Amino acid sequence: MATLNDVAIRAGVSKATASRALNHPALVAPATAERVRVAARELDFVPNRLARQLALGRTGIVSMLFPTLSNAFFTPIIAGAQDRAEELGLYLTVTAQPLAAAAELSHLADLARQVDGFVVVAPRGDDALVTRAMALRPSVLVDREIDGHTSVVADTASAFAALMRGLAAAGHRRVVFIGGPDRSWQNVQRTRAIEHAARTGGVDITVLGPAEPNFLVGQSLAQEVRASGATAVLPYAADLGLGVLFELVRSGHSTLGPASSSPGLIEVVGVPDSPAVAVDGHALGREALDRLHERLAEDPHGSPPASTQQRLPVPISQAGPHPTHSPSPAHSPG
Question: Are the CB atoms for 162 and 318 separated by under 8 Å?
């Protein structure tokens, strides 16, 4: 098996220069970095990532904390983070940690001694508790913002506001928004954005919820939707919308296709064959790992790092049978 010294000899540089070229290419001349990379490829050199991290006083391991592993929305976030971790030479672990009680901090403190940093997904955890957890190691928050902490968020609130403006432009004057779970940061942001868009668009908005984002809850709310006199319903989550749609169709108050052209029928947004919010979970995971890598590269003896709050744009998919991510239960773990 080739060693770093073999690569250095092949490239005609010192071992130290070869190490810099592979680990910090910006510190050497571009031609030198390329020569070392070519030599490494030709020799099938595999760097010892663990040894490199230990030399820096680190484990080379980072952990993603999720409230549950049963929520399908988290899957692409994990995949994106995993891809980026491999590119950055880090090992990624995934842990179910709801951050719902202070007693969890003891377990997290044990985990913190084994990892370099955390990516924290805690949509409903108390701000103070999440802050204490993030103080254990350099951390990045995903899909939620807390003042003073670095975060990466899918800007679904702006996308939902755009959906509301679309309903207003289509002539809807009474709309129901079915909110998401209680204490969900994303639900608060979406509700505010939708209410503002409704006011500016001359729409009378009725907000139902908070509600757990599942099919049965959607079914149970269909009667309230009908009683509101709304001509359209915008659900926080796809499963909520499907439950509402099922009951509306069964009672003759909606159709499986777009209802806007059928007088007297209620249109359900965010279900198949309607516009939907399309979150790129893979990009969200990659960006979170990038921000954590930046935190890990900071000088521990320097000035306290400035927090950054990054919001990724979220497009709206056009009507079709399989929306990428309609208003989703992703931000409402069980």
Answer: no
Backbone torsions φ then ψ of 16, nearest 5 degrees: -65, -40
Considering the chain, what percentage of its residues have pLDDT values greater than 90? 64
How far is Cα 159 from Cα 277, in angstroms, rounded to an integer?
A: 6
Coil/strand/helix, residue 86: helix
Residue 70 — very low, low, confident or very high, per pLDDT cuts 50/70/90?
Answer: confident
Nearest to 231 by CA among 262, 203, 266, 269: 266
Supply the mean pLDDT for the chain: 87
Query: How far is C-alpha 254 from the chain's CA centre?
Result: 32
From CA 288, how far away is CA 293, in angstroms rounded?
9
pLDDT of res. 55: 54
Matching residue, tokens 């939907």: 276
Q: Which residue's structure tokens are 């990428």? A: 324
Structural contact between residues 27 and 19, judged by C-beta atoms closer than 8 angstroms: no
Collapsed DSSP state (helix, strand, coil) of residue 118: strand
Cβ of 301: how many Cβ atoms within 10 Å? 5
- The dihedral region occupied by 29, where left means phi > 0, alpha psi between -120 and 50, and beta the remainder, is beta
Task: State which H helix or E strand residue 81 sits in.
Answer: helix 74-87
Question: HEC states along 180-238?
Answer: CCCCCHHHHHHHHHHHHHHHHCCCEEEEECCCCCCHHHHHHHHHHHHHHCCCEEEECCH
Question: CA-CA distance, 7 to 67, in Å (whole number)?
Answer: 44
pLDDT bracket for residue 272 (50, 70, 90): confident
Q: Are strands 117-120 and 204-208 parallel, antiparallel or unpaired?
A: unpaired
Token readout for 129 is 């508790």
Q: Which residue has the tokens 């692409």?
A: 76
Long-range contacts of 221-224 (CB under 8 A, 24+ apart): 221/178, 222/246, 222/247, 222/248, 222/251, 222/253, 223/247, 224/176
Cα 157 from Cα 175, distance rounded (Å): 17
Joined together, the tokens standing for residue 295 give 């935190």
Instruction: Give strand pairing partners of 18.
Output: none
pLDDT tens figures, 104-141: 999 999 999 999 999 999 998 899 999 999 999 999 99
- Round to whole Å and give the CA distance between 287 and 116: 17
